[in-house]
Amino acid sequence: MYPAELVAPMKQDLVNVGFEELLNPEQVDEVIANTAGTLLVVVNSVCGCAAGNMRPGVKLSLNGDKKPTKLTTVFAGVDGEAVAQARKHFLPYPPSSPSIALFKDGELVHFLERHHIEGGTAQMIAENLTEAYKEFC
After folding, report:
1. pTM
2. Alpha helical stretches, state H, 35-99
3. Which of 25, 45, 73, 74 is most deeply packed, by most CB within 10 A?
4. How many domains does the chain have?
């Protein structure tokens, strides 16, 4: 577990652009089951690829006309139970931090694993997500 004061700015980076933090398993299940339309679930992380690629890419992806109905985030290494519950909904994909999941009416329709994030740029991540939004949102 990381100290709260260390991760606060990393959490706030997404909260500031409209993401809701999911802090426990019940919140994760509720939002996935009850969001009509599309839901983005971002597994945030302290790693450099989250700071340099993932968070900037996710924020950039929200600039287009099409975007998810609801934006949520869980934080790996901090909100352990919420992350573990979210990962149950990501199956068959293995645990990955950071990662990005797009759901439509409760069904996982698009997923970016760490290896898609750490090897790419923020622009590449944004373009990948933007294409998914065009298809599903």
Report:
1. 0.95
2. 48-49, 55-61, 80-89
3. 74
4. 1
